[in-house]
Amino acid sequence: MKTYPMTIDGKSVDTGRTLEIINPALGQPFAAVPVARPQDVDAAVAAARKAFPAWRATSAAERQAMLHALGAALEANMPELMDLITRETGKPLQGLNNVGAGMELGGSIAWTHVTADLPLEPEVIQDNEQARVEVHRKPLGVVASITPWNWPLMIAIWHIIPALRAGNTVVLKPSEYTPVATARFVELAQAVLPPGVLNVVIGGGDIGAALSQHPDINKIVFTGSTRTGKRIMENAAASLKRLTLELGGNDAGIVLPGADVQAIAPKLFGVAFHNNGQTCACLKRLYVHDSQYDAVCTELARLAKEVRVGDGLDPATELGPLQNRAQLDVVSTLAADAAANGGTILSGGKARAGQGYFFEPTIVAGLSNGARLVDEEQFGPILPVIRYSDVEQAIALANDNPNGLGGSVWSSDLALAAEVGKRLECGTVWINEHGAVQPDAPFGGVKQSGIGVEFGHHGLAEFTSIQTVKIMKN
Ligand code: NAD
């Protein structure tokens, strides 16, 4: 079994402890990584701190050239990285609607190049005979990036590239479930970046907590559960670290009366089930008007029964396994609770016997708010479809949740759908689409789905502090 490296200050570090990484399609280990000790966290932060002055002093053009070179390195190593992502996450190489390891690499490459090219020029607020007032954006220092297991490499890229573009150095901690492709990428990046600019430490929540508490880290960018986000915020308070928190979602979609059921059903199915529902901004609760409720349920259940579930390395596979056993248990518990409390299971409903962490794609009718499957983030291949009788009621039900990541409205009346969409309490609302992000448009959660945004110049600004410069002229 191959061991992938942990890189600190440009060098591979042997910690004397290793962790085996499980392929969830088989439930068997396929690779190993070193596990960081507390002194490795200190060494990584010290290396990033040491590298910061020289990195900050590089010109924008120099940094942009190095970031484009990272994009080229991702592209040159795409087959190997896709294979590692499929083995560690279980997601198919291509997958349902092409949302698979190929998209994870394609997205990583696109985000790298677009983010590298984002401008970060000073803004001139005033320039007259009295004074010139400029707003400058300065790097913060050492940024810690803590990532989850669902899109491990792409989310790491979402964190690292804007941090580096703005002149910060980085210590990255991938999820202990899926560190392999990220560790390999950081190893490849050493051929491009000066030592210490990008470091990786591998471990679990203890290593994440050590980073959140570390006095020499200036900012944490975290993607993961709301529960962990709250812990990080507590730990970061002691040194008033800057935070970007991209947390859990429980995104609602509303199908307005009169929508074209045959046209939207495959889209609804795709946005709820791609990556097996393990995406922060998957559609997680679907509200459908009484007049079309049965038709939508029937179509979604048909699609759930037809979709091809299997090992992601098989090119025919559309949905893989859950990424880990704990998540399989969460989904199984929610399915059992739904069946016991008035839900009707229209397809699937249980884990698949045999090897791997597979769960049958499941559509549940007959529930409403108050049921666990509706109120809690399932993060798996099970979708509750909820009946409503008037649009005001649907809006109220959609907003009746502590999360506020995304939301969607489905209708052929685009103006009406946009009006309804703007009343949803969420960071992004899509019309006739759900969860589609792009590197130049800000994305983030409201309510308990997070703090701050990523992407585009709004996201880049979060990796900087403002310095206002006022030059008196007389
Ligand atoms: P998680 O919170 O369990 O783990 C995320 C990371 O935090 C891991 O690297 C983990 O080791 C680390 N961690 C655990 N305890 C920690 C602590 N006390 N201090 C610091 N770090 C700690 O999340 P997960 O299960 O890996 O990911 C799934 C969740 O992530 C879902 O809720 C999903 O909605 C959310 N998510 C959100 C977005 C978004 O952009 N909003 C994107 C992807 C995933």
From TrEMBL:
Oxidoreductase is among the record's keywords: yes
GO molecular function: aldehyde dehydrogenase (NAD+) activity
Domain Aldehyde dehydrogenase: 16-469
Keywords, ordered alphabetically: Oxidoreductase
Cited InterPro entries: Ald_DH/histidinol_DH, Ald_DH_C, Ald_DH_CS_CYS, Ald_DH_CS_GLU, Ald_DH_N, Aldehyde_DH_dom, LUC3-like
EC numbers, comma separated: 1.2.1.3
Catalytic activity: an aldehyde + NAD(+) + H2O = a carboxylate + NADH + 2 H(+)
Membrane-spanning residues: none
CDD domains found in the cross-reference section: ALDH_AldA-AAD23400 (cd07106)
PROSITE patterns reported in the protein's UniProt record: ALDEHYDE_DEHYDR_CYS, ALDEHYDE_DEHYDR_GLU
Active site positions: E246
Enzyme class: oxidoreductase
Classification via Pfam families: Aldedh (PF00171)
Homology family: Belongs to the aldehyde dehydrogenase family.
The protein's name: aldehyde dehydrogenase (NAD(+))
